[in-house]
Amino acid sequence: MINIMLVDDYPMALEGMKEILKEAPNFKVIGEAMSGNEAVEKLDVLMPDVILMDINLPDMNGMEATRRIKNKYPHIKIIMVTVSDNIVDLFAAIKNGAQGYLLKNMEHDSWIPYIQSIINDEAQIDDLFATKMLKEFSSHQSVDNHKRSDLTCREQEILLWVAKGLTNKEISLRLEISEYTVKNHLKSIFQKLHLNNRVQLVHYAYEHGYLNSPSYLT
User: Fold this and answer.
1) Which listed residue, 17, 47, 64, 127, has the most CB atoms within 10 A of its CB?
2) Where are the chain's structural domains?
C-alpha cells in the first residue's frame, strides 16, 4: 500500500485528486493539507510515501514546502501538481527536490501510471520538458562539480542510459542485469552525486560530457 498526502488550497481540486487515485487499489490517501505550512506540520504524524503538491499555495508556496520537506525527509517522493508548465516554476521545484510534475489538465488516465513510475524510480523524461529544463539549468549553478571517478564503470554506464531516456526495465535488458540491480545502482548514483531525480541526472550527464550532443538540445 502506497500512502499519499494531497496538498492543494482548493477543496474541489483535493476531491478531484482523491477520485483519480481511487482507481489504484494500492494507493491510499492518508491526509491532506490546504497550505504549505499545514503540509509541513502534518508530516511527523502522517509520514506519507508520496506527496502531490500544488505549486501555488497560501503562506508558503509549493517550492519552499518541498525544500523543507526534502531536507527533513529525503525519502518522501514529491510530485508537483500545477495548471501551468511554466519552466521557471518547474525548475525551482525540481531543484528543491521534487521527483516530477503533473499538469492538472492532463488526461486522468495517465496520472496513476505516472505516479507509479515515480514510486518505482522509473519515470521517463519528456523530451520537450528536458530541453527546456537543460537550457534553464545551463544558466544556473545547480549541480556540484563532482568527478567521474566518484562513480564505478557500471554506474557511469547506467547514468548514460538514464540520460538517454531509457527506463529501468530497458536498461536491465540492455545490460542483462535485473531491474532490482539497476535500481540499486541508481540509488548509489543519486547518493554519490547528491541528486534527487532523473532530470537532475540528465543535466549532470550533459554537464560532465556523457552526452556530447544531447538530443534534448536539438
Assistant:
1) 17
2) 2-119, 136-217
